[in-house]
Design a protein that fits this description.
alpha/beta, about 30% helix, globular, 5-stranded parallel sheet
Protein backbone atom coordinates (compact mmCIF):
# COMPACT_ATOMS: atom_id res chain seq x y z
CA UNK A 1 0.00 0.00 0.00
CA UNK A 2 1.32 3.47 -0.90
CA UNK A 3 1.66 5.83 2.02
CA UNK A 4 -0.43 8.99 1.93
CA UNK A 5 1.63 12.02 0.87
CA UNK A 6 2.29 14.59 3.60
CA UNK A 7 -0.08 17.57 3.63
CA UNK A 8 1.04 20.43 1.44
CA UNK A 9 2.77 23.33 3.20
CA UNK A 10 1.15 25.67 0.65
CA UNK A 11 -2.31 27.16 0.30
CA UNK A 12 -3.67 28.87 -2.80
CA UNK A 13 -5.45 32.21 -2.62
CA UNK A 14 -8.68 30.55 -3.79
CA UNK A 15 -8.50 27.91 -1.07
CA UNK A 16 -7.69 30.53 1.57
CA UNK A 17 -10.83 32.44 0.59
CA UNK A 18 -12.88 29.29 1.22
CA UNK A 19 -11.24 28.62 4.57
CA UNK A 20 -11.70 32.20 5.75
CA UNK A 21 -15.41 31.89 4.98
CA UNK A 22 -15.66 28.59 6.84
CA UNK A 23 -16.53 27.79 10.44
CA UNK A 24 -12.93 27.80 11.68
CA UNK A 25 -10.86 30.32 9.74
CA UNK A 26 -7.09 30.17 10.13
CA UNK A 27 -5.03 32.71 12.02
CA UNK A 28 -3.35 35.00 9.47
CA UNK A 29 0.19 36.31 9.98
CA UNK A 30 1.52 39.12 7.76
CA UNK A 31 5.33 38.85 7.69
CA UNK A 32 6.20 41.29 4.91
CA UNK A 33 9.90 42.12 5.10
CA UNK A 34 12.77 43.71 3.18
CA UNK A 35 16.43 42.80 3.58
CA UNK A 36 18.44 45.58 5.16
CA UNK A 37 15.55 48.03 5.31
CA UNK A 38 13.05 49.22 7.92
CA UNK A 39 10.18 46.93 8.78
CA UNK A 40 7.00 47.09 6.72
CA UNK A 41 4.56 47.69 9.54
CA UNK A 42 3.40 50.91 7.83
CA UNK A 43 2.55 48.98 4.66
CA UNK A 44 0.65 46.49 6.78
CA UNK A 45 -1.24 49.37 8.40
CA UNK A 46 -2.24 50.67 4.99
CA UNK A 47 -3.52 47.39 3.57
CA UNK A 48 -3.46 43.78 4.68
CA UNK A 49 -5.61 40.68 4.57
CA UNK A 50 -8.59 41.22 6.89
CA UNK A 51 -7.83 40.17 10.50
CA UNK A 52 -4.15 39.46 9.75
CA UNK A 53 -1.60 40.25 12.47
CA UNK A 54 1.77 41.79 11.59
CA UNK A 55 4.93 39.99 12.70
CA UNK A 56 8.35 41.68 12.35
CA UNK A 57 10.92 39.23 10.97
CA UNK A 58 14.00 41.08 12.22
CA UNK A 59 12.64 41.73 15.72
CA UNK A 60 10.36 38.72 16.32
CA UNK A 61 11.46 35.90 14.00
CA UNK A 62 15.17 36.27 14.76
CA UNK A 63 17.43 36.87 17.70
CA UNK A 64 20.04 39.63 17.89
CA UNK A 65 22.72 39.40 15.21
CA UNK A 66 26.06 38.11 16.46
CA UNK A 67 28.01 34.88 16.64
CA UNK A 68 24.92 32.97 15.49
CA UNK A 69 24.72 34.93 12.24
CA UNK A 70 22.69 37.85 10.91
CA UNK A 71 19.33 36.22 11.66
CA UNK A 72 19.95 33.66 14.40
CA UNK A 73 16.97 31.77 15.75
CA UNK A 74 14.93 33.63 18.35
CA UNK A 75 14.71 32.32 21.87
CA UNK A 76 11.94 29.69 21.63
CA UNK A 77 10.05 31.01 24.64
CA UNK A 78 10.15 34.57 23.32
CA UNK A 79 8.98 33.32 19.93
CA UNK A 80 6.15 31.45 21.63
CA UNK A 81 5.06 34.64 23.38
CA UNK A 82 5.03 36.49 20.04
CA UNK A 83 2.89 33.77 18.49
CA UNK A 84 0.45 33.74 21.40
CA UNK A 85 0.03 37.52 21.15
CA UNK A 86 -0.71 37.02 17.45
CA UNK A 87 -3.52 34.62 18.37
CA UNK A 88 -1.76 31.35 17.55
CA UNK A 89 -3.00 28.26 19.36
CA UNK A 90 -1.63 24.75 19.20
CA UNK A 91 -4.64 23.13 17.53
CA UNK A 92 -5.72 25.99 15.25
CA UNK A 93 -4.60 26.41 11.61
CA UNK A 94 -2.21 29.22 10.75
CA UNK A 95 -1.52 30.78 7.34
CA UNK A 96 1.47 33.08 6.83
CA UNK A 97 2.06 35.43 3.91
CA UNK A 98 4.45 38.13 2.79
CA UNK A 99 4.70 40.55 -0.12
CA UNK A 100 5.08 37.74 -2.64
CA UNK A 101 8.72 36.65 -2.61
CA UNK A 102 7.92 33.97 -0.05
CA UNK A 103 11.16 34.12 1.92
CA UNK A 104 9.81 35.81 5.04
CA UNK A 105 6.66 33.70 5.03
CA UNK A 106 8.80 30.59 4.77
CA UNK A 107 10.88 31.73 7.75
CA UNK A 108 7.72 32.04 9.87
CA UNK A 109 6.45 28.68 8.56
CA UNK A 110 9.77 27.02 9.40
CA UNK A 111 9.92 28.45 12.91
CA UNK A 112 6.38 27.33 13.69
CA UNK A 113 7.08 23.85 12.31
CA UNK A 114 10.40 23.64 14.19
CA UNK A 115 8.69 24.62 17.44
CA UNK A 116 6.01 21.98 17.02
CA UNK A 117 3.03 23.58 15.27
CA UNK A 118 1.63 21.01 12.85
CA UNK A 119 -0.99 23.11 11.04
CA UNK A 120 0.84 26.01 9.46
CA UNK A 121 0.90 26.80 5.72
CA UNK A 122 2.21 29.52 3.43
CA UNK A 123 -0.06 31.50 1.11
CA UNK A 124 1.43 30.62 -2.27
CA UNK A 125 2.36 33.86 -4.04
CA UNK A 126 1.68 35.97 -0.97
CA UNK A 127 -0.15 39.28 -1.02
CA UNK A 128 0.24 39.61 -4.79
CA UNK A 129 -1.55 36.31 -5.40
CA UNK A 130 -4.30 37.29 -2.98
CA UNK A 131 -5.04 40.59 -4.72
CA UNK A 132 -4.75 38.98 -8.17
CA UNK A 133 -7.48 36.56 -7.08
CA UNK A 134 -9.72 39.46 -6.09
CA UNK A 135 -9.09 39.09 -2.38
CA UNK A 136 -10.15 41.96 -0.15
CA UNK A 137 -7.71 44.10 1.82
CA UNK A 138 -8.26 46.10 4.99
CA UNK A 139 -6.55 48.89 6.89
CA UNK A 140 -8.31 47.95 10.12
CA UNK A 141 -6.20 46.38 12.87
CA UNK A 142 -8.48 43.85 14.48
CA UNK A 143 -7.85 42.90 18.13
CA UNK A 144 -7.12 39.20 18.56
CA UNK A 145 -7.56 36.87 21.50
CA UNK A 146 -4.32 35.52 22.90
CA UNK A 147 -3.52 31.99 21.78
CA UNK A 148 -2.17 29.07 23.79
CA UNK A 149 0.74 27.94 21.60
CA UNK A 150 3.73 26.66 23.57
CA UNK A 151 6.92 25.98 21.61
CA UNK A 152 8.45 22.52 21.62
CA UNK A 153 11.63 22.79 19.51
CA UNK A 154 12.69 19.88 17.34
CA UNK A 155 9.64 19.47 15.12
CA UNK A 156 11.77 19.55 11.95
CA UNK A 157 15.49 19.33 11.24
CA UNK A 158 17.99 21.94 12.39
CA UNK A 159 21.74 21.94 11.66
CA UNK A 160 24.60 23.75 13.34
CA UNK A 161 27.84 24.59 11.52
CA UNK A 162 29.59 21.32 12.36
CA UNK A 163 26.58 19.23 11.30
CA UNK A 164 26.32 21.19 8.04
CA UNK A 165 29.99 20.48 7.30
CA UNK A 166 29.46 16.76 7.85
CA UNK A 167 26.26 16.68 5.82
CA UNK A 168 28.00 18.33 2.87
CA UNK A 169 30.16 15.19 2.66
CA UNK A 170 27.73 12.47 3.73
CA UNK A 171 24.41 13.67 2.28
CA UNK A 172 23.31 16.64 0.18
CA UNK A 173 23.76 20.20 1.39
CA UNK A 174 22.07 22.80 -0.83
CA UNK A 175 23.15 26.44 -1.00
CA UNK A 176 20.02 28.53 -1.62
CA UNK A 177 21.83 31.80 -2.43
CA UNK A 178 22.36 33.30 -5.87
CA UNK A 179 24.92 31.44 -7.96
CA UNK A 180 27.41 34.32 -8.04
CA UNK A 181 27.56 34.38 -4.25
CA UNK A 182 28.02 30.60 -4.13
CA UNK A 183 30.88 30.87 -6.64
CA UNK A 184 32.50 33.68 -4.64
CA UNK A 185 32.32 36.19 -7.49
CA UNK A 186 30.49 38.73 -5.34
CA UNK A 187 29.63 38.96 -1.66
CA UNK A 188 27.60 42.07 -0.85
CA UNK A 189 26.85 41.30 2.79
CA UNK A 190 29.11 38.78 4.49
CA UNK A 191 32.89 39.01 5.08
CA UNK A 192 33.95 36.25 2.67
CA UNK A 193 32.58 34.98 -0.65
CA UNK A 194 32.23 31.33 -1.62
CA UNK A 195 30.47 28.31 -0.16
CA UNK A 196 30.72 25.48 2.33
CA UNK A 197 32.97 22.79 0.81
CA UNK A 198 30.81 20.02 -0.64
CA UNK A 199 27.65 22.12 -0.88
CA UNK A 200 25.67 22.22 -4.13
CA UNK A 201 24.47 25.48 -5.68
CA UNK A 202 20.66 25.54 -5.73
CA UNK A 203 19.31 29.11 -5.85
CA UNK A 204 15.86 29.14 -4.29
CA UNK A 205 14.72 31.71 -6.86
CA UNK A 206 14.65 28.82 -9.35
CA UNK A 207 11.93 27.09 -7.32
CA UNK A 208 9.48 29.82 -8.29
CA UNK A 209 7.55 30.26 -11.52
CA UNK A 210 5.44 33.06 -13.00
CA UNK A 211 3.50 35.20 -10.55
CA UNK A 212 5.74 34.24 -7.65
CA UNK A 213 4.09 30.85 -7.20
CA UNK A 214 6.18 27.83 -6.31
CA UNK A 215 6.60 25.29 -9.10
CA UNK A 216 4.32 22.28 -8.76
CA UNK A 217 5.47 19.26 -6.81
CA UNK A 218 6.52 17.22 -9.85
CA UNK A 219 8.64 20.06 -11.24
CA UNK A 220 10.27 20.63 -7.88
CA UNK A 221 11.06 16.95 -7.47
CA UNK A 222 12.62 16.90 -10.92
CA UNK A 223 14.69 19.96 -10.13
CA UNK A 224 15.99 18.59 -6.84
CA UNK A 225 16.66 15.18 -8.32
CA UNK A 226 18.73 16.90 -11.01
CA UNK A 227 20.76 18.54 -8.23
CA UNK A 228 21.58 15.16 -6.74
CA UNK A 229 18.88 14.99 -4.08
CA UNK A 230 17.61 11.40 -3.69
CA UNK A 231 13.85 11.82 -3.82
CA UNK A 232 13.40 8.39 -2.20
CA UNK A 233 14.77 9.65 1.10
CA UNK A 234 17.94 7.55 1.05
CA UNK A 235 20.17 10.49 2.02
CA UNK A 236 19.81 13.35 4.47
CA UNK A 237 19.23 16.76 2.89
CA UNK A 238 20.16 20.13 4.35
CA UNK A 239 19.90 23.75 3.22
CA UNK A 240 21.65 27.00 4.03
CA UNK A 241 21.63 30.50 2.60
CA UNK A 242 22.98 33.85 3.75
CA UNK A 243 21.27 34.11 7.11
CA UNK A 244 18.57 31.45 7.35
CA UNK A 245 15.73 33.26 5.55
CA UNK A 246 15.88 32.26 1.87
CA UNK A 247 17.13 28.86 3.04
CA UNK A 248 13.80 28.38 4.81
CA UNK A 249 12.13 29.03 1.46
CA UNK A 250 14.14 26.19 -0.08
CA UNK A 251 13.15 23.90 2.80
CA UNK A 252 9.53 24.89 2.03
CA UNK A 253 10.03 24.02 -1.65
CA UNK A 254 11.54 20.66 -0.70
CA UNK A 255 8.58 19.99 1.60
CA UNK A 256 6.20 20.83 -1.26
CA UNK A 257 8.07 18.19 -3.28
CA UNK A 258 7.68 15.65 -0.44
CA UNK A 259 11.36 15.80 0.56
CA UNK A 260 12.21 16.50 4.21
CA UNK A 261 15.22 18.74 4.78
CA UNK A 262 17.05 20.36 7.69
CA UNK A 263 18.00 24.04 7.84
CA UNK A 264 21.41 25.36 8.85
CA UNK A 265 19.95 28.46 10.46
CA UNK A 266 23.26 30.29 11.02
CA UNK A 267 24.03 29.83 7.34
CA UNK A 268 26.82 31.64 5.50
CA UNK A 269 26.71 34.67 7.80
CA UNK A 270 27.78 32.46 10.69
CA UNK A 271 30.08 30.18 8.71
CA UNK A 272 32.05 32.98 7.03
CA UNK A 273 32.50 34.93 10.27
CA UNK A 274 34.71 32.13 11.63
CA UNK A 275 38.07 32.38 9.89
CA UNK A 276 38.96 28.81 10.88
CA UNK A 277 36.22 27.33 8.69
CA UNK A 278 37.15 26.31 5.12
CA UNK A 279 35.71 28.13 2.11
CA UNK A 280 35.32 26.80 -1.44
CA UNK A 281 34.88 28.96 -4.54
CA UNK A 282 33.89 28.31 -8.14
CA UNK A 283 31.27 26.21 -9.87
CA UNK A 284 32.11 22.87 -8.23
CA UNK A 285 31.11 21.86 -4.69
CA UNK A 286 34.80 21.61 -3.75
Amino acid sequence: MTANPPPSPLLSAADLKEELAGPRPPVLLDVRWQLGGPNLRAEYGSAHLPDAVYVDLDAELAGPAGSGGRHPLPDPEEFGAVMRRAGVSADAPVVVYDGGQGWAAARAWWLLRWTGHARVRVLDGGLAAWTAAGGALSAEVTPVSEGDFKPNPGGIGLLDADAAAVLARTGVLLDARAGERYRGEVEPIDPVGGHIPGAVSAPTTENVGPGGLLLDGAALRARFEGLGVPVDGTAQVGVYCGSGVSGAHEVLALAAAGIPAALYAGSWSQWSADGSRPVAVGELPG
